[in-house]
Specification:
The complex is a heterodimer. Helices cover 0% and strands 50% of the residues of chain A. By secondary structure, chain A is mainly β. In chain A, the strands form 2 sheets. In chain A, strands 2, 4, 5, 6, 9, 10 and 11 form a 7-stranded mixed β-sheet that branches. By secondary structure, chain B is mainly beta. Classes of the chains: A mainly beta, B mainly beta. At the A-B interface, strand 4, strand 5 and strand 10 of A face strand 6, strand 10 and strand 11 of B.
Chain lengths: 115, 112
């Protein structure tokens, strides 16, 4: 069973740039969620994708956007980067049929630094 | 809105000591409660969960009981090991939202 994989693991950008982070969900999972974890904080929900559509969004501006592909992999795009976007971005996959209390399986994250 | 509050760390214990990490929550309705653990260099992984009041989740010697009257879900272990050193996150989700709300995490360091 292949776990959740994320790329890149680390990246550095400058303010105003755009970034794309990628996630491959665990085999058999149809739902992907993205979380932002600032240093010393818990993960904050960005949004979730199910059947290639956004299905729930947290308190993040529209410059945070995403995609889910037919193979259930996903991308997180952030435009017009700001210094406060520096964080660990976590992807989590799950199986929707497991219901809302289904386990989330996390990748190791992509650490973004904005200078 | 919904929220989770955890005791601040770091918590430093000697091996075989007892552990309690406090977690309280605020939520409407009947959330499900979780403890996730993040070992150094690894992603978060589910440690245990409880889906209704008075349920007890348990795994790897850790336990937590869903207390609706005190809105708490404290994590306990009778005898910690060095390998338990990690960051522990309390979390909740409410049915239909598919959104998990995490606490800020508590770092545990166990000394040999």
């Amino acid at each position: 069973e292949t776990g959740v994989t994320q790329s890149p693991t680390h990246l550095i950008k400058t303010r105003g740039q755009q970034v794309t982070l990628r996630c491959s969900s665990q085999s058999g999972h149809n739902t992907v969620s993205w979380y932002q974890q600032a240093l010393g904080q818990g993960p904050q929900f960005i949004f979730q994708y199910y059947r290639e559509e956004e299905n729930g969004r947290g308190n993040f501006p529209p410059r945070f956007s995403g995609l889910q592909f037919p193979n259930y992999s996903s991308e997180l795009n952030v435009n017009a980067l700001e210094l406060d976007d520096s964080a660990l971005y976590l992807c989590a996959s799950s199986q929707r049929t497991s219901g809302p209390t289904g386990e989330l399986f996390f990748g190791e994250g992509s650490r973004l630094t904005v200078l | 809105g919904d929220s989770v509050t955890q005791m601040e760390g770091p918590v430093t214990l000697s091996e075989e000591a007892c552990l309690t990490i406090n977690c309280t929550y605020t939520a409407t309705g009947y959330p499900s409660l979780f403890w996730y653990v993040q070992y150094p260099g690894e992603g978060l992984q589910l440690l245990l969960k409880a889906t209704k009041a008075d349920d007890k989740g348990s795994n790897k010697g850790f336990e937590a009981t869903y207390r609706k009257e005190t809105t708490s879900f404290h994590l306990e272990k009778g005898s910690v090991q060095v390998s338990d050193s990690a960051v522990y996150f309390c979390a909740l989700t409410r049915g239909g939202t598919y959104k998990y709300i995490f606490g800020t995490g508590t770092r545990l360091k166990v000394l040999a």
